[in-house]
């Protein structure tokens, strides 16, 4: 997949390591040990009865409490479909919600700029990617949080282009060097699209700017019809302001995106103990209710429009009220949301990997490891925020992006699970080895066969003996990630936007990323 | 629980933090958010059909391939029970194995020196602890691996005494400063017992030395009868040398321990791809077969003697053949073994937390996080190697012990899971907050109520904002763990061995830990 990187990777590796790399690279997609879309669902944080009770509570919330702050066009569209508007709240009868869930879009792809990178969320199929609106770039060497820039977004995008276990790129940072909101929206989209061919997610600051960005996408796609055929960008849309209120600006953006053929991520980001109930089950109920209200809205605008069930409840540290994205409570919340999406058979997205740690340290590792593997095992279709994020979404770190690619690799290996077959039970191998053979499995045919098909090898995680590790300078994983980041950023310059397209974008829109930043210096 | 630490902890904490600590400390055991023995089983790495097929394969291995290298007393005991000995291999008919499994000891406690710290493995109840035979102590500041000493074992034990999420203390290191094997066995046992009141696990280098250590235990317990009533030490026994051979020395030790009333951990530590099949299912089959062979052996010696189903298969990095305890494959293997123990309804122990990282870095964090939470969610009763271990069991780190206590805390929170009740569904809280209340849950009665009962707060993991964190010196988690380790080691001197007992031990056995090392300097 990493075509653009191959030159760099080959140059770096020598001798034996290079041979291993080539053998791994030669594997066809369907026998690679891990890949996007592996089915999860081995872990069920909720019992079937628990799922049913949560669904009942959700329907009661929607019918009884409803959602406040609907804009007039939302009220109009939803009441036309059967919602009830009174005392400033839009209420959704049970039958309406159930009908919409039954008829809503499912099994639509999230397209990439090239079909081979398309994703197919749904069922229990698991994908990992970035997301966020961090305002800082974390420098793990100086330990500084500095304001994030447009160049940082472009750099993150081209790193994701070559990090195989990061399957989509939702913009993770806000370009703080672009105070003008039109420039901000246009350039965020441009930097993402120019940096990676993988599916991109972005937000828009106003409906007018969403419209402008749709026009950019028509240019990139080669016309509106081709864009609508394969929309390779989705809109991350906080359509609600929890608890149980619509976001007014986001609603207006939502309408433009849905009508413009852009898949929307219906994102409910309440925080348990602050803007959502402190009880985990209650936070799930509220998040599901808020997202289903959004789903009614979307389907009232354009029946069957593609929407992602984006239950993203966060957690508060109840001692301080501050967010705690790396906690065990968060891991449970996210996994439960992944399970609820499967109950409705809707493509679901939730957030994991949001460590509270400020640096890529051991805290960051365990918080990301626990939350990501649980989200994956639960069969969450789209796991956002899974790479690079720190400080509960306040800082993004390019070095962590590299390490997180390894975290996700191991999580995906766990999602893949254990095959139990006549071959894998290994009775013949045991007989060969123990009764007539050498008494070990080192050179056994089964071992050699499984070496590339069943085992995942990390990029920067180290498995050397202490002695070998000392001889190589006693580096920690951060030091190795710094080197790998530098290697990628100095060698990977994706050139997939055709020059004519790029020229048209630069002519018609205020593109600020300098051409020189986009090629080897 | 941490009685010995309270003074230290209180002195350290100031103002607001101190109030939080007191409120947390005041919670009765049964409403603490996490505790030893929380039931897992939410995650099932194997389908029911997969479990059944593995069991069938295990029975075929035991009946057909059998186990080599049985010592004469083992052959005698097992054949008397119905095993068949031919061509140098002991084979176990299916009915014999099934009978032994049905009659074997289950639901026995693992006693501590005080009853309130007893553990009750079985069912899907989860406990975490240390283990290992590391030969190095890791200094994460100088990044050096130096030979481990008796003092290191004692220090690790007294740290475990006050780290609430580490539930038992199996000796994690070998005292390399004691070359004499009798001194090694005697002092390892002494340092563990003097350092912590929690359940202790040790190994013995010969049956004679196992007998000598039993005599020490009689002294500590106040006589053999009282020892047999509440055996507070178990024997970690590698009774097999995989693949499918008994260990001769370990067998002789096993016989002494079983007859001496000591619970044994029947430990099969094959390495997939080297001494066990490379296929994960096959490695599980071999491990279960090896442990069940040990269970027959134990029950042939003393029917109903307490034994732990210790399936500990490890993983090789198949590129190099070296062990890879931090891999996703390891996480799956361990979790599957936890599930198999539940199938047999035997108290099961497996290993997780064995990172390949040489330092407490981000790699260490994610490898420990993933493997430990999966072992816990699978309902593994006794999760060994879960704290302090590095370099795939070659190095032990006291600073990691502190951080791992937090890893386990979050893993246990995940094991506890999500309560779905009328209250936790939170419909009334939503009505209060959204329809008539303030529009947020910050001061809501439910939030306050759940603050201590449902939420786990870490010891050294940090949840501050980047700004507050910078003001406090921009420390990473390792720096905070170093401070916490120093605080514990300078303040925690457990004095639970009565002076008369200690004097008798020192008079009768070659105890080497200086008295001065055991009190505040």
TrEMBL record, chains A, B:
Belongs to the trimethylamine methyltransferase family. It comes from the Bacteria. GO terms for molecular function: methyltransferase activity. One of its GO terms (biological process) is methylation. Keywords: Methyltransferase, Transferase. Residues 1-22 are annotated as: Disordered. Pfam families: MTTB. Its EC number is 2.1.1.-. This is Methyltransferase. It comes from Tistlia consotensis USBA 355.
């Amino acid at each position: 997949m990493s075509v653009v990187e191959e030159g760099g990777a080959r140059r770096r590796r020598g001798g034996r390591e290079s041979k291993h790399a080539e053998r791994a690279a030669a594997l066809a997609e369907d026998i690679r040990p891990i890949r996007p879309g592996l089915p999860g669902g081995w872990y069920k944080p909720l019992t079937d009865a628990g799922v049913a009770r949560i669904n009942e509570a959700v329907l009661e919330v929607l019918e009884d409490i409803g959602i406040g702050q609907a804009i007039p066009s939302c009220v109009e569209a939803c009441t036309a479909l059967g919602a009830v508007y009174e005392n400033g709240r839009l209420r959704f009868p049970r039958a309406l919600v159930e009908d919409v869930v039954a008829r809503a879009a499912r099994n639509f792809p999230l397209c990439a700029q090239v079909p081979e990178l398309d994703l197919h969320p749904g069922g229990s199929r698991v994908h990992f990617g970035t997301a966020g609106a961090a305002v800082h770039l974390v420098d793990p060497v100086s330990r500084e949080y500095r304001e994030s820039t447009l160049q940082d977004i472009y750099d993150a995008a081209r790193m994701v282009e070559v990090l195989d276990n990061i399957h989509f790129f939702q913009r993770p940072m806000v370009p703080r060097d672009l105070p003008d909101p039109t420039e901000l929206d246009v350039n965020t989209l441009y930097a993402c699209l120019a940096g990676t061919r993988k599916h991109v997610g972005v937000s828009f600051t106003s409906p007018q700017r969403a419209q402008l960005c749709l026009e950019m996408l028509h240019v990139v796609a080669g016309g509106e019809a081709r864009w609508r055929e394969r929309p390779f960008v989705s809109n991350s849309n906080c359509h609600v302001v929890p608890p149980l209120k619509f976001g007014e600006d986001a609603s207006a953006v939502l309408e433009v995106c849905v009508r413009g053929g852009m898949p929307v991520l219906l994102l409910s980001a309440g925080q348990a103990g602050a803007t959502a109930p402190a009880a985990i089950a209650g936070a799930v109920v509220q998040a599901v209710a808020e997202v289903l209200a959004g789903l009614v809205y979307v389907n009232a605008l354009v029946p069957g429009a593609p929407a992602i069930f984006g239950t993203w409840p966060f957690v508060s540290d109840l001692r301080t009220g501050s967010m705690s994205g790396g906690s065990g409570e968060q891991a449970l919340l996210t996994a439960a949301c992944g399970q609820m999406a499967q109950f409705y058979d809707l493509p679901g997205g939730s957030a994991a990997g949001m460590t509270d740690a400020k640096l890529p340290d051991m805290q960051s590792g365990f918080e990301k490891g626990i939350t990501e593997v649980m989200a994956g095992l639960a069969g969450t279709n789209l796991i956002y925020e899974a790479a690079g994020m720190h400080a509960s979404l306040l800082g993004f770190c390019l070095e962590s992006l590299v390490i997180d690619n390894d975290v996700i690799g191991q999580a995906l290996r766990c999602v893949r699970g254990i095959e139990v077959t006549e071959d894998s039970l290994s009775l013949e191998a045991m007989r060969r080895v123990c009764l007539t053979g050498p008494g070990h499995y080192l050179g056994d045919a089964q071992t050699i066969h499984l070496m590339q098909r069943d085992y995942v090898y990390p990029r920067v995680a180290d498995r050397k003996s202490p002695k070998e590790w000392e001889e190589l300078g006693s580096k920690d994983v951060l030091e190795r990630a710094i080197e790998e980041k530098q290697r990628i950023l100095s060698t990977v310059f994706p050139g997939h936007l055709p020059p004519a397209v790029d020229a048209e974008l630069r002519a018609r829109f205020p593109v600020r990323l300098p051409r020189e930043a986009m090629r080897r210096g």
